[in-house]
Amino acid sequence: MSLRVLVVDDSTVFVHLIKQALESIDGVQVIGSCRNGRAAMEKLRTTPVDLLTLDIEMPEMNGLEVLEAMRREGIKTTVIVLSAAGDRARDLTLRALELGALDFIPKPDGSSADGPALLRQRLAPLVKAAAHGKEVRSILLSGQAGRKSSPSRVAPVAAPATPNQTAQRMNRLVLRTRAAMVLIGVSTGGPAALARIIPHLPASLRVPVLIVQHMPPLFTQNLAERLGANSVLRVQEARDGETAVPGTVYIAPGGSHLKVMAGAQRQIVMRVTSDPPENNCRPSVDYLFRSAAVSFPGLAVGVVLTGMGHDGTLGLRLLKASGCASIAQDEATCTVFGMPKEAINAGVVDLILPLDSIASEIVKAVG
Question: Which residue of 120, 217, 273, 353 shows the fewest CB atoms closer than 10 Å?
Fold first, then answer.
């Protein structure tokens, strides 16, 4: 499927690099470029665009204002943010993700000879995810929802449970698990998804929440601060050797794994490690889930949210084998239905839920 792409950046150098990288990817048609957000919005209103690469800091109308305008006007074009370095840029990038951007990639070094190749490597999987999203939307709009276009592209998903069926099933799981922690794994689309779950967890939550969000170093600290500002729970990066306590949300530091171990009094001790990446990820969801299955069998609720790839499926299988409950986000509310789809197709998910139902089911699952 052909993907029509618009490049938005106020730097002529970066526009050239981005176009060069995109045009080397099969199925991509770069239909033009804009130097500011105002021109981009005019283009989006009049021209079909499947994918937007978006700079954040631009004159006249910045990237955040573009995303806000797209949301107001109901423009569904997929957005990839090109992010600069620095504290301010990280905070702006996270805000862009909360506003619905698919993902972000660092801006390349304009003077580097391998800049276009590195940029292409980072863009290619996101372009593929955008193309898949376009295909799913096309199927839904054509009235063929629920029918497979091909076995490899649109996976069959179990019919959603009725509220009564969900309640009965969750009650059985609560009796079985007696959860001592909630574990969440998420990747592409994660900041926006977490922003619709964590603020809805109550101050009375009697267990800690541990999150693996696929994200580079430094960004996870900004993510914790943004989530904490809108939540009654305390939100922080996990620290090596610290005990996880109820009512606190811990985020695995970007670039490091997070695991849990049982302390002398069976408390939940967090370890932050530099062990090798798993599933090409560090932090890895499988790494966290596996540690809980080994050290706290039957005492966790595992949740897999939006994201590319299959990280979390093997770990969720181990959690399930030890008696834990499991939840996956449904396809309709995922930014990328990759990680949840893999877990669902592996048969290791108890409940498939829309994003806005997950917080309340977590509360039920921990009693």
Answer: 217
